[in-house]
Amino acid sequence: MSTSMNNMKLVIDSLAKEGIRDKVKVIIGGGPISKSFAHKIGADGYSRSAVEAVKLVNQLVGISA
Fold first, then answer.
1. Number of domains present in the structure of the chain
2. What residue numbers bound the domain in which 37 lies?
């Protein structure tokens, strides 16, 4: 995953350039990723596990558990 970290901001910037950044949610996670890094690159959220990711996605799209 650490090799893909450089491209995460590129993806977010590309979404903005195409004018669709506000239409999608971007969440990132994995071993080398942190909440701070997610905030720094403009991601909508961070999760350290798949279970937490599902909860986060539900929050982001307005589904209550």
1. 1
2. 2-60
